[in-house]
Design a protein that fits this description.
32% strand, alpha+beta, 24% helix, elongated, Thiol Ester Dehydrase, Chain A
């Protein structure tokens, strides 16, 4: 009887197989231009993003960026940093717990909680925090990383 050898599913992945506990972060300050760019992509013209008087009178007390601007920071962390190039989301579960205003410095973080050896699939704990360290988004993501051919 021969021993079963598990295939290494991470061969050819740009940054290799990440270890459990590895993390990456990216920060940026939101701008009014982010709202416009997101609207051009999606059509989201919610007055909470555009009508200053209405937004200031709302529970948020200010103009806020779309949730996709906030969560989009995690796209960059995953695709560029961890696991890195070739990575795409298979599943996300995010809670938006605090709105992000225009001009806020936010930091997106992804930390590896599980890694499959047979396939380039990673489970991540994800978050976005504001300058005060308050959680704005929290949750998890499952990511598949495509081995990229050099060309």
């Amino acid at each position: 009887m021969t021993a079963h050898v598990m295939k290494d599913g991470w061969i050819g992945v740009a940054k290799g197989r990440p270890p459990v506990g590895a993390f990456a972060e990216r920060s940026r300050r939101t701008k009014a231009e982010d709202i416009v760019a997101f609207t051009e992509m999606t059509g989201d013209r919610n007055p909470l993003h555009y009508d200053k008087a209405l937004a200031e009178a709302s529970v948020f007390g200010r103009l806020i960026v779309q949730g996709g601007v906030t969560s989009g920071m995690l796209n960059a962390v995953v695709a560029e940093d961890l696991p890195g190039p070739g990575s795409v989301f298979l599943e996300v579960s995010w809670k938006f717990v605090k709105a992000v205003g225009v001009g806020e410095l936010i930091t997106a973080r992804a930390e590896v909680t599980q890694v499959r050896a047979d396939k380039p699939i990673t489970k991540l704990e994800t978050s976005v925090r504001n300058e005060a360290g308050e959680l704005c988004l929290t949750g998890t993501a499952t990511v598949f990383t495509v081995p990229l051919a050099k060309g």
